[in-house]
Write a structure and sequence with these properties.
The chain has a single domain, classed as Peptide deformylase (Peptide Deformylase), CATH 3.90.45. It is 20% helix and 27% strand. The chain contains 3 helices and 8 strands, in the order ααβββββββαβ. The strands form 2 sheets. Strands 1-2-3-6-7 form a 5-stranded antiparallel sheet. A 3-stranded mixed sheet has the order 5-4-8, covered by helices on one side. A hairpin with a 5-residue loop joins strand 2 and strand 3. The chain is globular, with a radius of gyration of 16 Å. The protein starts with 28 loop residues before the first helix and ends with a strand. The chain binds cobalt (II) ion. Cobalt (II) ion (CO) binds next to helix 3.
Length: 188
């Protein structure tokens, strides 16, 4: 499947609101190919030359519904720093991921969120859980994994898993008070 900024479904298409179904495991050849192409998109999207040449918008994650396939699959590539300021690289191809626990403490990105399916900017705090535990099958490692995510990675996971429910990041923005300060929230 050709995945680029023209083929990615935008929020003016009702399909983006459709719920995604669990995927049968082991993966069919078709599902596996799609998930690998999704990961490739995310990787290539942050390469300036490739992004320009192939019309890719930079992203840290993509979910299958964004290419019109309502299946619970998402590819994520995140580079960040751990608690001790050491760089960490995360790469996942998740199938049927589920949040099994989430912290009471909230977190949000100070600059707000963006999405491949949303062309316009929507300013405001997207308040999510600061930490989540996610269980999934991961095609990168070919095993069932449990991810204990905090901060930025936790935000990305929640953003992508929202796509399975047809939820977009701006649904979480308080329209009356978009920059509301949530008490005790981790600001990223
Ligand atoms: Co998105």
């Amino acid at each position: 499947m050709l995945i680029n900024n023209d083929t990615i479904i935008k929020d003016n298409d009702p399909l983006i609101r459709q719920k995604s179904e669990p995927v049968e495991l082991p993966l069919s050849a078709e599902d596996e190919t799609l998930l690998r192409e999704m990961l490739q998109y995310v990787k290539d999207s942050t390469d300036e030359e490739k992004a320009k040449e192939f019309n890719l918008r930079p992203a840290v994650g993509i979910s299958a519904i964004q290419v019109g396939v309502p299946k619970q699959m998402t590819a994520i590539v995140v580079d960040e720093y751990d608690k001790n300021e050491n760089p960490v690289h995360y790469e996942f191809m998740l199938v049927n991921p589920k949040i099994v626990s989430s912290s009471v403490q909230k977190a949000y990105l100070s600059g707000g969120e963006g999405c491949l399916s949303v062309a316009e900017e929507h300013e405001g705090h997207v308040v999510r859980s600061a930490r989540v535990k996610v269980r999934a099958y991961d095609l990168c490692t070919d095993q069932y994994i449990e991810i204990r995510a905090r901060g930025y990675l936790a935000i990305v996971l929640q953003h992508e898993l929202d796509h399975f429910k047809g939820i977009l990041f701006y649904d979480h923005i308080d329209r009356k008070d978009p920059f509301h300060e949530t008490e005790g929230a981790m600001v990223i």
